Amino acid sequence: MSTRTESARLRTALRENGLTLVFAGLFVAALVGQAFTGLAIVNREQAAAALAPISLARYITSSTFAVDVAENWQSEYLQFLLYVLVTVWFVQRGSPESKVPEAAGRESDEDQLVAEHARPDSPAWARARGWRLSVYSRSLTLAMGAIFLGSWLAQSIAGTTAYNASQLRDLQEPVTWAQYVTQPEFWNRTLQNWQSEFLAVASMVVLSIYLRERGSPESKPVGTPHAATGVEG
After folding, report:
1. Is the pTM higher than 0.90?
2. SS3 sequence, 189-224?
């Protein structure tokens, strides 16, 4: 196979997966930035307490870093989990983020192209009946829910460790995991993230009724009337 053909295939793969690659790159850059800035904060606190600084490797394997990362992940996946579920039944007139009111609900098999209404190129489980179709019909929610619960559990476990480290430094009794997840500190940090996610989704739903971004599938075409619903650019 020629080098030119390989190069063409690579360019095609990059173009067809550009959205994922851009956000993956931004994610890695932000995570690295969080690690270095978090380390700087910790070492500043170490110096103020007349303690030796810690290494980057020690910081990124610490409960302090883990709880901050997991806390953000669980709130993001909760946002998408709820958005996927709520948009099944609830609509917003004029928003491209919403279905048209007449399509609210699970929709018919014909509309969803499943079972006998499936096309030849439909996924195999969409052409089946029974438990496979039932699972596949809810697979996005199941995946988002599993990631959310896993992130929430990781946050709570790492948070318990970080909280107990602080307790021991202050000569206070450590707490169990069950005790920690009933602490105001845990829910204060959690709800701070949740409320911002819910506000962001609500803002996107409403602002996209009246505002546009030419060429974006998250926006209606520029000339589309404000009342048009479920129309993407």
Report:
1. no
2. HHHHHHHHHHHHHHHHHHHHHHCCCCCCCCCCCCCC
